[in-house]
Amino acid sequence: MLMVVIPGATGTTVAPGGALSTSHSTQSKAADVFAAPFSARAGYSAENSAVATDVVPAHGSQLVVVTFQPRDPSFFIPPAPGAAAQSNTQIAMKFGLSSAEYSGVESYFRSEGLSVVHTWPDRLSLTLDGPVASIGRAFGTSIWAGWHDGVPVTYPASAPSLPSGIEPLVGSVLGLTTGFDSFLLPSLAPVSIPAANPAQGSADLVTPAIARSIYDLSSLYNVSGTAQYATSESIALLLWGWGYAPGDVQSFFQQDYPSSFPSPTIAPYAIDGAPAPSPNAVNDPCKSSQELTLDLEWAGSMAPGATLDAVYAPESAAPMCSPTTASMADAFHQAVSLPVSAVSMSFGTPESSDQSLAAAWQTDIGEADQKGITLLAATGDLGGDAQPNCQGGPMPQYPSTSADVLAVGGTAVTLQRNLLGQLTGFSESAWSESGGGYSTQNGAPTWQSNGSGGRGVPDVSATAADNFVYFAGSDEVAGGTSFATPLWAGLMTEMDAIHGRAFGLVSPRLYSIGEAESSPGSRIAPGLADITSGNTCVASAGPGWDAATGWGSPRALLLYEDLTATFVNLSIQVAPSSVAQGGTVTITGHLSNITTGAAITNVPVAVSLVSSTDIGPCTGVFGSSTPATDGGGNLSVSVRVPVCYLGSHATAQVAVTADGYYGTNSTTVAVNLLGLVPGLGGLADYPYNLVTFVVIIVASVSVGYVLGRGRHPAPSVAPSAPVPPTVGGTTVPEPEAPAPSVPGNVPPNAEGTQKT
Fold first, then answer.
1. Which of 157, 55, 161, 72 shows the shortest CA–CA distance to 108?
2. What is the pLDDT of residue 29?
3. Which of 218, 405, 580, 656 has its CA 20 to 30 A from that of 490?
C-alpha cells in the first residue's frame, strides 16, 4: 500500500460549509467541486504564499493538466447494472467538448508558447508543458518557487484566470501548484526466504496459489463445466515510479503460475517521462517498483490470461519519492481511457478539500462508471490511523472513500496444515494494520447505512498480513492491503469475463448481498465470508459490516452466483422532463428479467427524487416511496420539487433489493422557471419569438402611456374669475353643483390599475 501524504493534513477535515455529500454516486460531490471558484479549481490558495520561504520567480518547465467539465450532468450517475459500456467516442460525443471547442483550447495554449503533450479521445482532458513564464502568462498570473517543510514548491502568485470563452469549460487545473501535496511510499521491509521452499519463511505465508484455493477461484474458473479465463479482459495497475523489471514478472509467471493457465500479457504505459521497464527498476530507492511488481503478479494470478496494463507516472528522487498531482492525473486518465475491466490503486491520500485534485479525479471516476470499469483502492496500512502504532488519530484515505470506488481492506490469514504440510483449512481475522474508518468529506451513500453519517470503509477485504512476492530475483514476504486490492481486481475481471459483461460499480450490489447473508435466519451460502475477530486502530471486526474488514473476504463461485443470479432490468422514465420549482414529476419504472425480458410482478421498488446539489435551502430527498410492481411489472410515483430548490437538476432514482432481486437506475430532471408551462418554451423559436417581442414592446409602451398620463397631467392656465349676474343691481348667486358620484370607497381622482 502506498500512502499519499499531504503536509499539514489531518483526519478531521470537513468539506467547505461542513456538509457531507450523501449522493449514491459522485454527482453531488462533483456539483460541489465544480461550483467552486475557478481559482480554487485551478489549485490557487492564498495561504501558499504565506507558508512558502525563500521565494523567487520560478524557472524551467512545468507539466499542467486541464480537465474539462462534462456537458451533461448524467455523466456522474452510474449506469444501471447490465447497461452497455460507453466507448471513448461515445463519451466524447455526449459529455466531452465539441471538436471545435477542444481545438480552440489547444490553439489558445499553443499561442501562449505551450506544447500539447497529450490529447485524449474523450475530449475531457488536455496535458500541457512549457516554460513557467508561458504557463503563468496563459493563466493570467505568474509562477513563484520556494520551499515548504523542506520540499520545493511552486504556486501562482495571484488567482489564475483564462479567457472568458475557455474558463467556463474548465473543471480543474493541476500543475500550477506543486509540492504542497506529496505522494510517499512508507517503508516496506520484505523478508527474504529460501526460494526452494517459500513456506519455510512463514507458517502463514499466503502465495497466489493459496489465495486461489482459500477464496475458491478454481471453482469459479470451471463454473460452466469447462475452464473459462480472462483472456479477453484487461486490468490497469495504477502507480508511479521506475516501473518493474520484466525478468521478475516473467520468472514469476513461469515458476509460480499453473502451466494450464493462459499466459498473461504485460503492457507498460510509462506516463510523462517515467522510465521504461528495465532490470534497473529493482534498484529504485523508493521501492515503488516492488509495489508495481506485486500488483502485476497478484492481479494476473487471479485473472489468468488477462492483459495487465502497468500505468505509472514518474517520481521525484529519494527521499521525496513523489509524483506530481498533474502526472498522477495523467496516469489515472490513461488508465480509464484503456479498454479495461478494472483499475487497481494500491495507494491513498489523507482526505483534503483540494478542489483542483477532487474535480480532476471526479471526472475520471465518472468516466470509469460510464465505461463499466470497476475501480478498486486500498484502504491503507496504518490501521486507519494517521501514524504507526495508532498514534496520530483516525485518518481515512482517498480514493477508497469515494462511493464509486470499491474499498479493499486486509485480513490476517491463519493456515491449517496436516503432518505432511498439506493445506487443510484456514481462518481469517482483521489485520491490525489494515486501513478503515469513516470519511470526513463524503457522506454515506444511499446503499450504505453505518450510523456515522460518513462513507465507511473498507467494503471488502482479503489477505494482507504475510504474502508472497517474487522481486529482484528472489522470493520475498511482505504485507499490505496492496495485496488484497489487486487480488480483488483480478477476481472482478475474471467474473466480467465469465459473465460476458462488465459489473462496473459493484459496491451497491455487494452491500445487498452482505445484508441478505447477515440477516437473522438467513440460509444464503456466503459469497462474502464474514470476519468477526481482530481489530484495527479504529474498529473491531464483528458480525455484519464493520470498519475493520467490511463485509469480509470472497468465496468466488458463490459470490459470482450472488452477483449474476438475481440481476434484473429496471427502466426509468420521468414526465415532464423539465419542471419548475413547485412542480410535480411522475416517475415510472418497469421491472423485468434481464435474460428473458419477462415482467417481474409484485416486487417492491424504492423510488425517490433527490437534489443534484448540496447548495441552497432545500436539498436532499424531495420524496420517496416503495410501491410494488403491478401485473405488467410497472410502477408509478409522483413527487413534487420544492419551491425553494435552487438547483438546475434533480435526480430520479429507482432501486430493487428485495426478494432476491437487484437492480438500480436513475435519470435527471431539469428544473427551471418554465417547467410548469412547457408551452412557453416554444416562444424562444422563430417566428413566435418575434411576435412575443412585439407584444411585449406594445404592452410596455401602452402601460407607460397610461401611467404617464396619470402621473404627469398637462399644465393648464387658471381662468379669470367670472362676473356674477345681476338683476336690478342685485347680485344673483349661482346654484350649487351636485357632488360627483363615487363608486364604492374609491376616493375621487383615484387612479385605476391595469393588469399586464
1. 161
2. 55
3. 656
